[in-house]
Specification:
- Helix 2 links the parallel strand 2 and strand 3 (49-53).
- The chain has a single domain (3-267), classed as Rossmann fold (3-Layer(aba) Sandwich), CATH 3.40.50.
- It has a seven-stranded parallel beta sheet, sandwiched between helices. The chain has a two-stranded parallel ribbon with strand order 5-8.
- The chain is built from nine helices and nine strands.
- The longest helix has 29 residues, at 96-124.
- The N and C termini lie far apart (58 Å).
- The mean pLDDT is 93.
- It has helices spanning 12-23, 39-44, 59-73, 96-124, 136-139, 145-165, 218-229, 242-261, 263-267, and strands at 3-6, 27-32, 49-53, 78-81, 86-88, 127-132, 170-177, 189-191, 237-240.
């Protein structure tokens, strides 16, 4: 039995993951801003589910939730940084305050969660940190630049963190989902109030483009994350969804073409001394 702390567990992927982990016989600290959203989960699993109020932008609530979780279950084995939301804007349309809030939740919040749980993991010499990112980091869709930038920052941090903690017996896994049937495009999304007509066509605001299908099922994503986390050697990167996998490979191939094309120019900057 392991103990998982999952942020943003009120709905979508976070809720599905909490349910799967509990059903598998593990303990879960499911964190939400309003604990009443998970009353049914607490009632279904009174001994193994703990519902904690947590706002990832509030360091006091982070410390309180982690301390309470460690007191009840003895430690946190798996941290899942899932809480986050989207923001749609052309780069030129980005609002400073909105972008700052986005980074506070999608990047700095996970950083604070990591820093709060790492001491206990280090003491026990075991633990897994799962950072939920997005394939948007790779495919960089128009209008998603700020969201992709926040997730790219989280992935960059994850890579360095992995090399710092693996010698201590800890693991770090990044998850890049594609499009899933959650509230991400609805209540979990924000949109710039600034609108520059020149970007309407490329951002699909003309009314002529149909929304792309959301093929991913949160329950199946949750099962995949649990399966990967329980592997003896969890993957450094887990891509979820056929759309994400296809987009990942297309972006990698496109980047490789440019790198190969300009290989000699790249090497020309080396000193000959």
């Amino acid at each position: 039995m392991t103990t998982w702390l999952i942020t943003g567990a009120s709905s979508g992927l976070g809720r599905a993951l909490a349910e799967h982990v509990l059903a598998a016989g593990h303990q879960v600290v499911a964190t939400v801003r309003k604990t009443s959203a998970l009353d049914d989960l607490a009632a279904a699993y009174p001994d193994t589910a703990m519902i904690a109020a947590l706002d990832v932008t509030d360091s006091f609530s982070i410390d309180a939730a982690v301390t309470t979780a460690e007191e009840r279950f003895g430690g946190i084995d798996v941290l899942v940084n899932n809480a986050g939301y989207g923001y749609t804007a052309a780069v030129e349309e980005g609002e400073d305050e909105a972008v700052a809030r986005l980074f506070a939740t999608n990047f700095f919040g996970p950083v604070e969660m990591i820093k709060a749980t790492l001491p206990g993991m280090r003491r026990r010499g075991k633990g897994l940190i799962v950072n939920i990112s997005s394939v948007g980091v790779r495919i960089t869709i128009p209008g998603g630049g700020y969201y992709s930038a926040a997730k790219a920052a989280l992935e960059g941090l994850s890579g360095s963190l992995r090399k710092e903690v693996e010698p201590l017996g800890l693991r770090v896994m990044v998850v890049e989902p594609g499009s899933f049937r959650t509230g991400f495009r609805g209540r979990s999304a924000d949109r710039s109030a600034v609108r520059i007509d020149a970007y309407d066509q490329v951002l699909g605001r003309t009314g002529n483009s149909a929304p792309s299908p959301q093929r991913g099922a949160p329950d199946q994503a949750a099962a995949a994350i649990l399966h990967a986390a329980e592997d003896v050697k969890p993957p450094k990167l887990l891509v979820l969804g056929s759309d994400a996998l296809d987009g990942f490979r297309a972006a990698a191939a496109d980047a490789a073409r440019d790198v190969d094309r300009f290989e000699q120019l790249s090497r020309s900057t080396d000193t000959t001394a």
